[in-house]
Amino acid sequence: MTRPVLSAADCVPASRAVFRRRRDVWVLAGTAVLLVIGLAGLARATGWQEIGAQLARLGPAEIAVLLGLSLINYLARGVRWHVLLGGAGLRLPLPISVLHFIAGLAMAVTPGRVGELVRLRWTATATGAPLDRAAPLALADRAGDLAAMALLLAACLGPAAGLAGGVAGGAPLAAGTATVAGALALAGLATRPEVLMALAAAGYRLTGRGARIFARGRRAARSAARLWRPRVLVPVLALGLVGWLAEAVGFHLLLHWLGAEIGLWQAAGIFVFATLAGGLTGAPGGIGGAEAAMIALLAAAGVPLDTALPATAIARIATLWFAVAIGVALFPLAEAHSRDGRHALV
């Protein structure tokens, strides 16, 4: 049997894909190294003994509670993914939908989290749906996160929460308000298919290229309209709020165990704002931006640096890196289930 002969042109897409993967790995590794160096420098200036004494406050029970609350977040958002699938007319068993979502968290540290789009491939393969029909799910999922976090941050900025006065006066209030407005605006844009279709058409008129890509974009935008009916939108927001509030409660408990007496809403506001700030940087997993924002806000709230540093490190391990670890463990199982092909469209 003769083997097909590949031309140089056939090798170009593969070589570009390899280059992008290597680039992403190096970007992530470099960002992580810089973050570790920065945190180590702060820890050295603060005093290793003080930080070690803070870490000694946490036992196995406290660690289990933190990881359990993070797991609630992943499960709630996994159920939300299942709700979105149903809204798009795609039928998968709930355990498989949750498996796809959590396994996709293995790619949360890719630039812009674009690696999480692997869920679309799993969904399309498992259901036989065209990618155009599955594509809006990623946008809807991201919009659900933005809307839920914006609503939670808005609650933390309320007069009863005391975040504005407790953090540093008017500057954090203005930044928090702008963040809420921006997140809600982006989430609202994702819920308007006519806007997305107009953007796709305008992009084609502007460039005059990629007619097939823009046509697919328009079809995907039309199919996204099914995702924003009330019977889909309400549970999507509710599940997002439950998930992110669980992690915010974990952050509050962590600060309490480390001796920082900060109220629940203030702690939740700091956690949500830092998470959103990290996402806006576009860095893999928000690495660097989220940690810097969290440490700065904790310091502004009067938390000593020898408490703010370990609190930030533990919070990120218990949320971001715990998610990546579970995702990596479940990734092969999700790959196997996506090839099953027994599921169908509604």
From TrEMBL:
Q: Where in the cell is it found?
A: Cell membrane
| Entry keywords, A to Z | Cell membrane, Membrane, Transmembrane, Transmembrane helix
> Which InterPro entries does this chain map to?
L-PG_synthase/AglD
Q: How does it sit in the membrane?
A: Multi-pass membrane protein
Stretches that traverse the bilayer: 25-43, 55-76, 88-109, 146-164, 171-190, 236-258, 264-283, 313-334
Q: Looking at the Swiss-Prot or TrEMBL record, what is one Pfam family this protein matches? A: LPG_synthase_TM
Q: Does the keyword Transport apply?
A: no
Q: What is this protein called?
A: Flippase-like domain-containing protein
Q: Which organism is it from?
A: Mesobaculum littorinae
